[in-house]
Amino acid sequence: MKIIVCLKQIIDPEVSPRDFQLDREALQAALGSASLVTNIFCENALETALQLRDRSSGEITAVTFGPEESEEVLRKALALRVDSAVHLVNPGILHSGSSGAALVLAAAIRRLGEFDLIMLGREAGDWGEGQTAGLVAEELGLPCVAFVDGIESDSDGVLVQRQTDVGREELHARLPLVVSITNNDANVPRIPKTRDIMLAHRKELTSWSLEDIGLDADAVRDAAVRSEVVDLFIPEKDVNCEFVPGESIDERIQEFAQRVAEIVRSV
Amino acid sequence: MANVISCMLPGVEFDRAARGLLGAGERLAAQLETQHIILAAGASDTLAQQLVQHGDQVVVLTDQELDEYQPESCLALLHAACADIRADAVLLGQDAWSQELAPRLAHRLAGCSIADAQAVDVRDGRIYITRSVYGGKAVAVVRANVAPAVVWLRARAFEPESARSASAAAEHRSFGATSSSAAATKIIRRHSESESDVRLEDAAIIVSGGRGLGGPEPFDDLRQLASVMKAEIAASRAACDAGWVPPGLQVGQTGKKVAPELYVAIAISGASQHMMGITDAKVVAAINTDQDAPIFRHCQFGLVEDWKNVVGPLKKRIMDLL
Question: Which residues of A touch B186 (CB under 8 A)?
Fold first, then answer.
């Protein structure tokens, strides 16, 4: 099975609110003291792909669209022993958004040629739109299943497990297929071996410009600007936690209970 | 000016989420001075009766493929219907199916797709969406530059509107537009994992447990507490990933986005991705051993204590007070 996993590098979503800064000009978060990480759902997607390859064999290509420094997510993927990695270099387009990213990813996937499964994370920890998988599917004219947390090969396609609002669904799907991956207890990302991390830096990594995949920056901007971020700000938080008063634990629990009961009665 | 369409997917009920969606549709149509059309995919007659009081027109899709949700056929029919009705805005709910279809529907309609809206406004005839980003640490305002704006809404962030006095007629239509790609995927099994009939997104009170509980058993204590408080039970990602409770109970960026009147976080540290799921909660209360846990920066009242010493007595006290 030929699998393409799309990865996104983001500002660490666990950066504390104190250290979180905005670039008001660019209308995006400023890196500040935060680090750059692979989006967690992308790691879940990669783990799902690795498990699928472990079980049945196949080939995994990791792809990312981002600036120079996003090569790091591909090096990490290579350390987890994906078979190849392709960096789609963003020439400095701010706010490519899901639409711009989907256009780029789809063009790259077309150039990669044959594939069976395209896997993406269900959403990214920065803009949290959860749309890229669906948009890539539409760009390529393929079916798509979202919120997937398990995939198995089947005689004429794959069996897909996924989470819904109230429980689970199992789908049968023909290939090729696009899936967005969510987390569960079975796709917690594995840790690369030290030796593999070192080897990863010597492995070959393909780097494509937008021109290499038949696009240019204007085409990506045109797709991105279908919806446009016009303002970005840090919300005023008037929340000030009050630690419930009381001399003893009993008194504090009583105070806590009273506040809870008051709200429960009002509902 | 084209219409505002609110989409109800197969199997949805006339619950708080649906009423919030329709309320948003009514207000947006009024602001755009256009018609609010409710597109109900495979609605029952009872549901259609309720819907006619919340829009200018109700279109019930009668195609047999909509008896149960299947992604590809549902998308094809919604696309055919929306293209025929013509819309400046297509609103969908927060359910997994709506989230799954929204970007694809936007693409097929050559519109733009905006996810997880917490407010919808109109200025100078253009649609602006307010949404929480960066794990709730920032708020973005996004303008739809092309029509239609296909938007899915965070359910409880939108107030319902009261029923109209004059009812619109429900029109039954069939589009039969299913293409061959319909068979590319098929849902072959469904099962419910929820612990109650109330969806977490609609719950008024939630008791939620996290990593600090240390295992599945303490959730039984939390369930007892929740039962006294008439609350739904939920969990953090850590508790779900550890397999202590089903993933459907997960609240956070990785799970449900909830908006209860009261959210009681027990042994939850309050990682950003968790906080993103509760930005719409009216009151957050926390019980945690660590006074510096991030959860205490986001809650109205808190108790620094080991949950083991609190949950039992707290249940009794609340029972006495109610």
Answer: 171-173
Testing the interface with A: which of B72, B104, B179 to mutate, by most A Cβ within 10 A?
A: B104
Interface contact flag, A259 B137, Cβ < 8 Å: no
CATH topology classification for B200-321: Rossmann fold (3.40.50)
Q: Which of B137, B286, B309 sits opposite A17 (nearest CB)?
A: B137
Both tokens of A231, joined, read 């303002």
- Whole-number Å distance between alpha carbons of A250 and A248: 5
CB contact under 8 A, B230 and A250: no
- CB within 8 Å: A232 and B111: no
A147/B100 Cβ within 8 A: yes
- Do B3-181 and B200-321 agree at the fold level? yes
Q: Which one of A20, A99, A260 has the shortest CB-CB distance to B137?
A: A20
**Integer Cα distance of A126 and A89 in angstroms:** 19
Domain boundaries, chain B: 3-181, 200-321
Residue B120 sits at φ, ψ, to 5 deg, of -125, 125
Cα separation, A227 vs A249, in Å, equals 52
Amino acid letter for position B99: Q
| Residues of chain A contacting B135 with CB distance shorter than 8 Å | 13-14, 125, 128
Q: What is the pLDDT of residues B98-139, one digit of tens each?
A: 999 999 999 999 999 999 999 999 999 999 999 999 988 899
Task: For B118-231, list the strands marked E by DSSP.
Answer: 119-123, 126-133, 138-144, 149-153, 170-173, 185-192, 205-209
Tell me which of A94, A166, A174 to substitute to probe the interface with B (most B C-beta atoms closer than 10 Å).
A166
**What is the residue whose two structure tokens read 């299947």?**
B70
Whole-model pTM: value is 0.88
What is the architecture of the domain spanning B3-181?
Answer: 3-Layer(aba) Sandwich (3.40)
| Chain A nearest CA to B207, separation (Å) | 11
- Per residue in A99-146, pLDDT (tens digit) is 999 999 999 999 999 899 999 999 999 999 999 999 999 999 999 999
Residues 6+ apart with CB under 8 A from B254: A40, A41, A182, A183, B237, B273
Rounded to an integer, what distance in angstroms lies between the CA atom of residue B191 and that of residue B189? 7
